[in-house]
Design goal:
Blueprint (H helix, E strand, L loop, with lengths): L2 E7 L4 E9 L4 H14 L4 E11 L1 H16 L4 E4 L18 E2 L2 H7 L8 E4 L13 E3 L4
Parallel strand pairs: 2-3, 3-4, 4-5, 6-7
Antiparallel strand pairs: 1-2, 1-6
Helix pairs in contact: 1-2
């Protein structure tokens, strides 16, 4: 099992939502999704893990690397709804990663209200309801 991702760019932050299992075999796909987020947004990236079934040590290392990659581009990584099977324990070279109980709390912390959103997703991820934000199907990474 691997991950599916969806990236939504808000006015001054991005939300990268994952579903599936983030293991070492999914690290390249996750890294590609982070690259997608870097290229298409500004501000912090909130990693929404509500749909994640779990993660391995390799997946956690990929998240820590994502925090370093974003920091190199002047952006921060935040997490929402981390899996119940463990929390991220970054090493000393990893920037601080704020953790929120759920995505709504993370967005509230940034006082997101309105604005234009754009969404990209992997081809296998279910499409959102009709009439929601503009969407662009992402390539499968």
């Amino acid at each position: 099992m691997t991950i599916e991702w969806q990236y939504t760019a808000h006015d001054h932050l991005g939300v990268l939502s994952l579903s599936g299992y983030l293991g070492g075999d999914a690290a390249d796909r996750f890294t590609g999704a982070v690259g997608w987020a870097v290229a298409r947004g500004t501000g912090p990236v909130i990693l929404d893990l509500a749909g994640l079934l779990g993660w391995s040590a390799g997946g956690q290392l990929a998240v820590a690397q994502a925090a370093r990659t974003l920091a190199a581009h002047g952006r921060n990584l935040e997490m929402a709804a981390i899996p119940a099977d463990g929390s991220l324990v970054p090493d000393a070279s990893c920037p601080d990663i704020p953790v929120h109980a759920e995505l709504a709390a993370a967005l509230a912390a940034h006082q997101q209200a309105g604005g234009q959103n754009h969404r990209w997703r992997t081809g296998e991820r279910p499409a959102p309801a009709a009439g929601s934000e503009p969407e662009h199907e992402g390539r499968t990474l």
